[in-house]
Amino acid sequence: MRAIVGHEQVTARLGQAVASGLVAHAYLFVGPDGIGKTTLALEFARLLECERPDLTTGDPCGVCSACRRIAHGNHTDITLVEPEEGKRQLGIESVRENVIHLANLAPSSGRWRVFILPNVERMTANTVNALLKTLEEPPESVVLLLTTAEPENLLPTLLSRCQIVPMRPLDANVIADALTARWSVPDERARTFAGLANGRLGWAVRAHDDPDLARARAEQLNKLIACTYAGRDERLAAAARLGADAEAARSSIELWMLWWRDVVLAAHGATHLLNDGAARDEATAQGRALGPEPAERFLRALIEAQAALEQNANPRLTLDVLMLDLPHLARQASGRR
Ligand SMILES: [Zn+2]
């Protein structure tokens, strides 16, 4: 699947399934937001529908009538089911209408009817139960491609009916090269986004398209950086804000960890850091002021906090504990170097 950057094991496995005729009725693409789950699902759908795919490379031909209809967005056998504009959650009515009803109709052409449902963890239990009935006895021609960032929050009955496709973060160099080659992002800018992306190409592309996203991330990072200098009350107030919900807590900790790795590197005297600009200068200053041992101790605390959230720990409590573990530094008086 040449359209997909990285994820070679996964694309090989899906290509193999098509080549051998052993396509499962349901796949669950698992990985963090922006890793490329929906992109991969769409590409897999193209491969399934293509009339003359290249079975050695797992690529759709790009010229058959199915490929052309997909390119024009009017292939009726591929349905991407997303929440209505402005809503976070997919409604049960939408699943009934766009999945369950259509699944019982024969494909209009070709062999498969493919349904792509991103973020299944956001569905209500009722919606998932409605979907499970289709998954229990799927019509012969149906392939469901589900995605999730939170497999731990899914019903075991749902997980057990899907082939799980884990998607791992990409190397920052792979992301930077792809941004330069495929999105024509200037090299230095590409490296900055790749450094911030935590292995998620989709996030880096979004940051390139939308400067607000990169700016919001920089602002959030500034707030986290400031916590090292803050007193106890200020820190606990920050924990309350950051821990308002599990997703916010998760993204804050992830960002914090990415930056704090640079603090640890700087504490060991490294000068080649992942972050750029002011974030890099701050990491250097804090790392040097703290020294290796306290810097590493807090990195371990961040890793533990992330693991705790994955086990459904209370986000507010997790952040409270982190704030108390965070080493304290006094702000240097301005004017000093
Ligand atoms: Zn084709």
Describe this structure as you would to a colleague.
The chain is α/β, with parallel strands linked by helices. It has two domains: 8-166, 3-Layer(aba) Sandwich (Rossmann fold), CATH 3.40.50; 210-325, Zinc Finger, Delta Prime, domain 3 (Up-down Bundle). The chain has 15 helices and five strands. It has helices at residues 8-20, 37-49, 65-71, 92-103, 125-136, 156-159, 172-183, 187-196, 201-209, 211-227, 232-242, 246-267, 277-290, 292-310, 315-325; strands at residues 26-30, 78-80, 113-117, 142-148, 163-166. It has a five-stranded parallel β-sheet with strand order 2-3-4-1-5, sandwiched between helices. Strand 3, helix 5 and strand 4 (142-148) form a beta-alpha-beta unit. It starts with 7 loop residues before the first helix and ends in a 12-residue tail after the last helix. The structure holds zinc ion (ZN).
Descriptive terms for the model:
single chain; alpha/beta; Rossmann fold; Zinc Finger, Delta Prime, domain 3; five-stranded parallel beta sheet; 15 helices; binds zinc ion
* Name of the CATH class of the largest domain: Alpha Beta
Give the N-to-C terminal Cα separation.
Answer: 52 Å
What is the third-level CATH name, the topology of the largest domain? Answer: Rossmann fold
How much of the sequence lies in strands comes to: 5-15%
What composes the largest sheet? 5 strands, parallel
| Full CATH superfamily name of the largest domain | P-loop containing nucleotide triphosphate hydrolases
